[in-house]
Write a structure and sequence with these properties.
It holds the Pfam family DUF551. It contains three helices and nine strands. With 150 residues, the chain is of the alpha+beta class. It folds into three domains: 33 residues, no CATH class; 46 residues, no CATH class; 51 residues, SH3 type barrels, CATH 2.30.30. It has a nine-stranded mixed beta sheet. A hairpin with a 4-residue loop joins β5 and β6. It is extended and about 65 Å long. The N and C termini lie far apart (51 Å).
Length: 150
């Protein structure tokens, strides 16, 4: 086997089109380990779909499971996983729609951040915002591609 698997072969393995050989599995595991060692410290810790800036915060009572470290991708410079982000750790950009979670009501909704701490999910007829203080937020998925058959 060569030092590298081709991109096409890796895609076939990753998406289940073919099974990897034992030799390929060992090679892939070594590559992943080398990559992980180069990553440095975790950017976030994830538990139960929520992101925390420290492992200690993720271990606080209220969440069940083992915190998983999430690393910054050296190639992209972005956090590897998506999911709930604590507003205490990081806030979304102003006027950007995001999914929010409000602990007091147990509700999730789409809202936007309009101030340092305020999120709005609706506006009254008079133009006043209906606001809430969520504990967590996450980015919305991309909109579906619409095919026009005209």
């Amino acid at each position: 086997m060569t030092n590298k698997l081709s991109k096409e072969r890796l895609e076939k393995i990753a998406f289940g089109s073919v099974r990897q050989s034992q030799e390929e599995g060992v090679f892939i595991a070594r590559e992943v380990l080398e990559y992980r060692e180069a990553e440095g410290n975790p950017v976030y810790w994830e538990i139960a779909g929520c992101l925390f800036s420290t492992k200690e915060e993720a271990l606080k009572p209220g969440f069940i499971g083992t915190p998983e470290p999430l690393y910054e991708s050296p190639a992209l410079g972005q956090p590897v996983a998506t999911g709930w982000i604590s507003v205490a750790d990081h806030l979304p950009e102003l006027d950007t729609d995001v999914q929010i979670y409000c602990l007091d009501s147990g509700e999730q909704m789409v809202a936007y951040r309009f101030s340092d701490t305020g999120f709005s999910y609706a506006t009254t007829e008079g133009g006043s915002v209906i606001a809430c203080e969520p504990t967590h937020w996450m980015e919305l998925p991309a909109a579906p591609e619409v095919i026009n058959n005209d």
